[in-house]
Design a protein that fits this description.
By secondary structure, this protein is an alpha+beta fold. Among the domains are: about 175-365, no CATH class; about 530-750, Rossmann fold; about 755-850, Immunoglobulin-like (Sandwich), CATH 2.60.40.3390. The chain is about 50% helix and about 10% strand. The protein has 32 helices and 16 strands. Strands 10, 11, 13, 14 and 15 form a five-stranded antiparallel beta sheet that branches. Helix 4 packs parallel to helix 8 (about 175-195). The longest helix has 30 residues, at about 5-35. This is dolichyl-phosphooligosaccharide-protein glycotransferase.
């Protein structure tokens, strides 16, 4: 054998021919990384604070630091949130483990907090840039190098959710979901292509024909590894199992109608899901039963079920071919087997049956009620709910209009190609794209997945355009004639004008709009603003230690029992959006969190009991009603569910310029949203204003009125103010309801404390009107009035319960910076009396006699 034809020579030739494309993909990946780290200044603040984006990234940093503190033990049950119940952590372990192992390696076993924070901030940008690799290969095996390169460019520049979830500081598992699910599809596709080309048969397994088995098995094993990595990034990975099974059923039917063997498909599917079921097994928590939300037997059973389905369909296909049965019976047999499987599941494992039946709606259906207010789960086509109507606004924001419609055109072209000459990789890509399109119709959270489909299908369309201008000949000419830099001038002479125009058209229509949109969306990363950071740090430093070891491993309580908290433990009531910030920055235990725990309210209908939690507390129509909710949160009759209440102007806003109004979301979770606004005719149309019901709500009483007149809730701290809709709400109250409150912006975040209150008692004439008042000054130097009034009883006795101490904080309790500027003044008739109240009296509910 000559050296020119030796295996070594062939291998070197392949490496050499692939080097230019490897270099191009590497450059694209590096550019993708640079785009994602543009807003680093909004993450690494000048004061040294690292501000991670959103909500869940903070919890990943919480679990990462916990993991490093207790390595290799990870957090599964956490009593430091959803007080007084705690929360099981459904996050997959892989994302945190990757960061932990990298931190330990770079920190030589003892990484500093600065290193951990820096790595955590950059990690999503790295994974986002790596996603370029599988997208390139998927594009390449659909339409050659040109399609692969274009797909890589489109995913690198893709705006919207994929960019947001892979940007610096957004340290969440979403980017790893996209990366590993795309790698799974890439390896599964390569396994199908290889197995089909080699004519893989079950006989090859029996005879151990390694020449036929080796390459497909390697790809299938890698597909199983990547599916497991995807599963261990997100418990809902069965979405891609569903995509694979739908593809497989269609492929089996097509192969049967065409009289072709489907053994290749059965072997690839069986090996893939055998590997994944083995790898997921060590992470199963048997006590979770068949939950899809946590790692449970569901994840093993579904992987094994997929394995069985591939094997059974393969067996049925072989039997049809061997017995020469009519092809049109095949879909009927599959349908019958599916119905039989559902019946068997309903009889033997009802909980699994329920999950399977409800899965399509949970993924593809449009949410209603409280869940419809979660930013991740509303439909991309109905961003404001079905009542507001169909809209493409989010589509354009997440993908750009040219890329979205180009991908639709690409799918149409791909469908036409499949009808003419079906290939497994093309059918898999089409089914993947169609089901993900259905998924974004149901929940916009899947938009970051669909960005990959947009890139692939847009590149497929662009690749077909390049084929029309004979791009493959140009590519071949480059590979043959360009050996060094001096060969480039000759190559450029062979480039045709239509090829130049085709490239420019693709750049102008697909690439440039994505790039421009991405640049506009990388100016910041979100996350807690300055007031929220300050408020959480204030909680950490100025409230009593709840008596919990922040990074200790706590065992979950026995089934049906509550976690045994120390007497010093307490909750912090706020809206669920802010729970992770309160826990991770403030080191305090929120009642509600972004796991949608502790919200309370109703889920079925208005007839259901309004469960205690954040939504019924903040929408309560009186202090007494709110206190009843707060007391009901904790099953211990001697303890309230929360000691502190944290509010911000977003929670208090019905409408919003400059804020994200959350009051409407709080009412939605109670399924009782009517009556908080009132329509008024303004001459040009109806305009909606806050109603009595809004101003009577506990949230309004706290944030808009500063808790004035409340007996057991006192403002203990406020942050600085921003220009918000607060002044508008106050103007409406003064103008329409005869109020007389100061029309200014106050603390963006306010912290209140729930106390027993001191009982001030005295005696006057019977049926005498008595008033108590004082002036409160906050830590920001702002003052406001606090007052109550009552009427003495028939014996002339009166009583006030007041929440503020006039004597300042005491050791071991709240170090408040908001307090009366002097004593309370009790007035009746022409008489006024001053009274001072100690902090002990407020905390213990002691009587203060006048």
């Amino acid at each position: 054998m000559s050296s020119q034809n030796s295996p070594t020579s062939t291998f070197r030739s392949k490496i050499k021919s692939s080097l230019p494309f490897t270099l191009v993909v590497s450059i694209i990946g590096f550019i993708a990384f640079l785009i994602r780290i543009r807003p680093s200044d909004s993450v690494f603040l000048s004061n040294g604070f690292v501000r991670f984006g959103g909500n869940d990234p903070w919890y990943h940093m919480r679990t990462l630091n916990f993991l490093l503190e207790n390595y290799p033990s990870r957090m599964f049950f956490n009593p430091m949130t959803n007080y007084p119940n705690g929360s099981y952590i459904h996050f997959g372990p892989l994302f945190d483990q990757m960061m932990a192992i990298t931190s330990l390696f770079l920190g030589m076993g003892n990484p500093s907090q600065e290193l951990v924070n820096t790595l955590g901030a950059y990690f999503p940008a790295v994974l986002g840039a790596l996603t370029v690799i599988p997208v390139y290969y998927i594009g390449k095996y659909l339409g050659g190098h040109k399609t692969g390169i274009l797909a890589a460019i489109l995913i690198a520049f893709a705006p919207g959710q994929f960019l947001h979830r892979s940007i610096i500081g957004f340290t969440d598992h979403h980017v790893s979901e996209t990366l590993f699910s795309t790698f799974f599809m890439m390896f599964f596709m390569l396994a199908l292509i290889s197995a089909k080309e080699k004519g893989l048969r079950f006989e090859h397994v029996i005879t151990k024909n390694l020449d036929a088995l080796k390459e497909p098995l390697i790809y299938s094993i890698m597909a199983g590894v990547m599916y497991s990595a995807y599963q261990l990034s997100w418990p809902g990975a069965s979405l891609f199992l569903l995509i694979t099974l739908v593809y497989a059923v269609i492929q089996y039917v097509l192969d049967n109608f065409r009289g072709e063997s489907s053994d290749y498909l059965g072997i690839v599917g069986t090996v893939t899901f055998l590997v994944s079921s083995i790898l997921i097994l060590p992470f199963v928590h048997p006590e979770m039963g068949f939950s899809m939300y946590y790692y449970s037997w569901f994840h093993v059973i579904t992987a094994l079920g997929a394995l069985v389905i591939f094997a059974v369909l393969g067996f049925i296909g072989r039997e049809f071919k061997k017995r020469n049965l009519k092809a049109y019976y095949f879909p009927l047999v599959i349908f019958g087997a599916f119905i039989f499987g559902l019946i068997a599941a309903k009889i033997m494992v009802p909980s699994l049956y329920s999950l399977v039946i409800n899965a399509p709606h949970s993924i593809f259906g449009i949410q209603t009620g409280g869940p419809s207010t979660i930013a991740e789960v509303y439909s991309i086509f109905y961003p404001n709910g079905k009542i507001a109507g169909f809209s493409f606004s989010r589509v354009y924001e997440y993908f750009t209009a040219p890329a979205f419609f180009a991908s639709i055109a690409g799918m149409i072209l791909l469908t036409a190609n499949i009808v003419r000459k079906p290939k497994p990789e093309e059918l898999l890509t089409l089914v993947w794209g169609l089901l993900m399109f259905m998924a974004i119709y149901g929940q916009n959270r899947f938009a970051y997945y669909y960005s990959v489909n947009i890139a692939v299908m847009g590149a497929y369309l662009g690749g077909r355009l390049l084929e029309l201008v004979k791009w493959d000949r140009l590519e071949e000419n480059f590979g043959t004639n360009v050996k060094s830099l001096k060969d480039f001038p000759g190559f450029f002479k062979s480039v045709k004008i239509e090829q130049i125009f085709a490239v420019l058209a693709i750049f102008a229509v697909l690439v440039l709009p994505e790039y421009s949109s991405a640049m506009g969306q990388t100016i910041g990363t979100g996350g807690p603003n300055g007031p929220w950071i300050e408020a959480c740090l204030w909680l950490q430093s100025n409230t009593p230690d709840p008596g919990m070891d922040y990074n200790s491993v706590y065992e979950a309580p026995e089934d049906g029992e509550l976690f045994d908290y120390p007497e010093t433990a307490y909750g912090v009531m706020s809206w669920w959006d802010y729970g992770h910030w309160i826990e991770t920055i403030g080191y305090r235990m929120p009642n509600a969190n972004p796991f949608q725990a502790g919200i309370g309210g109703r889920r079925g209908s208005i007839e259901d009991e309004n469960q205690p939690g954040a939504s019924p507390f903040f929408t309560a129509q009186s202090e007494e009603e709110a206190t009843e909710v707060l007391e009901a949160v904790d099953p211990d009759p001697d303890k309230a569910g929360a000691r502190y209440i944290v509010s911000d102007i977003e929670m208090a806003s019905l409408f919003g310029e400059g804020v994200n109004p959350k009051f409407g979301a709080m009412t939605s979770w109670t399924l009782d949203s009517d009556g908080y606004t009132q329509a008024y005719w303004t001459g040009s149309g109806y305009q909606y204003f806050p109603s009595d019901r809004y101003f009577n709500s506990m949230e309004s009483r706290l944030h808009i009125f500063d808790g004035n007149g409340l007996k057991q809730y006192r403002l203990v701290h406020e942050t600085w103010a921003y220009q918000t809709q607060e002044t508008w709400h106050k103007q409406v109250y003064n103008y329409m309801y005869g109020g007389n409150i100061s029309e200014d912006n106050t603390g963006y975040v306010k912290i209140f404390e729930y106390v027993k209150g001191a009982n001030i008692t005295g005696t006057v004439s019977p049926d005498e009107t008595v008033k108590i008042s004082t002036t409160i000054q906050t830590g920001q130097g702002r003052t406001f009035g606090y007052s109550q009034s009552t009427t003495s009883d028939s014996d002339g006795r009166y009583e006030f319960t007041v929440p503020y101490s006039t004597e300042g904080p005491i050791s071991g309790e709240t170090r408040f910076d908001t307090a009366p500027t002097g004593p309370y003044v009790v007035s009746y008739g022409d008489t006024t009396k001053e009274v001072r109240v100690t902090e002990e009296a407020v905390l213990n509910g002691e009587e203060v006699k006048i």
